Every structure is written in structure tokens, then in C-alpha cells.
User: Which sequence fits this backbone?
């Protein structure tokens, strides 16, 4: 896995060299910690997206929530929640889940106005999410559409970390056991209201801190040991 992750540095530098001046080039100009850095010396950004579906080629980002993690703590004072105005009506089945309706979103800024702030928050930080596939695919697709370059960076996926923990302990991974609230319950963490991007980001960040605290390692885990690639 380490060899795979090392490739990120080469790709990111290539995008920085070839990129046009702007938020994407500024993002690639700042490196995150090296992969052998102990996790508590790394800055992370717990991030969550609410979307109209799971396919970034057909669905849209409706809200972004994030919270930085530094020195082993979630920085609640720097947490943010931003709505994103969609270009199409919000599907009814999606609105039922996250409670975001068309009339709520009329005054929200478009994605092109929100994305620069997200990239600023991500500079020098490793993104962290629960089931990070959604955030990885949607953010990379958005960056490619708006700036012509994808967002290439290793992620921490608290769902995959939890799956590895259960498998290492030879505990059954049953349906629903890897959901964010279920994973938090195993560490005695409180249940927060779901489907609010900022609260879900904070919840994932807190879960990560609990996960690394209970990792059965002699030394603090390194960045490459907690990243999913």
C-alpha cells in the first residue's frame, strides 16, 4: 500500500506544474505530511457531503460540512457547513433523507463559489470521511469539471478502519454494523442527528480519534497505516 500511496506525491506535483493559476493550483502547491508521520502530527480535515445521489456524473452536491483535526482533537470552532445551490430540482426521495428542499437552496451559492473554500480548508490536510468513496468521487469530479483537474490525495476512511478492526478481532461484520452511528456506539460515543453534513463530519472525526486510541500497535500509527489510499 505504501508504494501505491507514494504515487500521489508525483501525481500532485505534476498537476501543480501543469495547472492554471487559481484555487486548484494553490491547493496542489501545499503538501500534506509525509506518509511515515505519526498520525497525531498530521492535520486532517473531516469532511462530509450531502448529495442528490451516489453518481457524481448524474447527481449533485447539496451541502458540504467539515471540521479540522489537529494535535489529536477536533477543532469545533473551525467547523463549517455550506449549502450548494443545485442546477436541477432536488429529487423528492433525496429531500426526505436530508431535509434540503428547493426553496431552502434558492439563495445558496453555486458549487463554483463553494469549491474554493473547500480547497482552502484542505490545503496541507488529509481528508477523512466515513465511507470516503462518496467524498472522494464527488470532490474529484467537481474539481475536474470546474478546474480541469481531479483532486488526488489519500483519504482516511473510518468505515474501512472499522471493518479492519472487526476483522482483526474476528468479529462478524453484519448488515448495518459499519454505519457511522453503529461504529460510534462501540466506542461509547453519543449519537448525533444524521444527514447534516457538518455534524456527520464531526462524528466521523470523533470516531477516528477513538479508533486510533484503541489500535493495538506499539507505536502511534503512521499516516500510511490509517489511509485507505
Assistant:
Amino acid at each position: 500500500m505504501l508504494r501505491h500511496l507514494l504515487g500521489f506525491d508525483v501525481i500532485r506535483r505534476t498537476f501543480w506544474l501543469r495547472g492554471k493559476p487559481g484555487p486548484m493550483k494553490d491547493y496542489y502547491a501545499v503538501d500534506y505530511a509525509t506518509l511515515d508521520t505519526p498520525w497525531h502530527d498530521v492535520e486532517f480535515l473531516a469532511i462530509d457531503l450531502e448529495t442528490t445521489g451516489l453518481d457524481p456524473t448524474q447527481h449533485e452536491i447539496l451541502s458540504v460540512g467539515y471540521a479540522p483535526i489537529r494535535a489529536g482533537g477536533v477543532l469545533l470552532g473551525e467547523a463549517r457547513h455550506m449549502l450548494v445551490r443545485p442546477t436541477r430540482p432536488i429529487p423528492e426521495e433525496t429531500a426526505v433523507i436530508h431535509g434540503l428542499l428547493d426553496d431552502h437552496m434558492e439563495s445558496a451559492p453555486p458549487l463554483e463559489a463553494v469549491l474554493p473554500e473547500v480547497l482552502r480548508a484542505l490545503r496541507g490536510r488529509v481528508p477523512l470521511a466515513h465511507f470516503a468513496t462518496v467524498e472522494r468521487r464527488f470532490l474529484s469530479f467537481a474539481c475536474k469539471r470546474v478546474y480541469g483537474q481531479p483532486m488526488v490525495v489519500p483519504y482516511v476512511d473510518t468505515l474501512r478502519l472499522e471493518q479492519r478492526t472487526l476483522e482483526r478481532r474476528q468479529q462478524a461484520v453484519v448488515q448495518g454494523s459499519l454505519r457511522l452511528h453503529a461504529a460510534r456506539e462501540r466506542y461509547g460515543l453519543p449519537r448525533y442527528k444524521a444527514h447534516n453534513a457538518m455534524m456527520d463530519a464531526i462524528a466521523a472525526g470523533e470516531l477516528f480519534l477513538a479508533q486510533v486510541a484503541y489500535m493495538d500497535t506499539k507505536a502511534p500509527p503512521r499516516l500510511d497505516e490509517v489511509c485507505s489510499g
DSSP finds ten helices and six strands in the chain.
